Amino acid sequence: NPVLLPDGDLFAIGKTDIGYLLTQSTLREVAAIKGICDSDPDGGPAYDAATNRIFVPCKGGGIQPVDLTTRTVQKKLSGANGAPILIGQELWAVDYPGGTLSEFNATTGARLQSLSIGSTVSNFTSPSSALGLVLVGTNNGVVAFVKKH
Question: How confident is the model over 82-101, as pLDDT tens digits?
Answer without folding.
Answer: 999 999 999 999 998 888 99
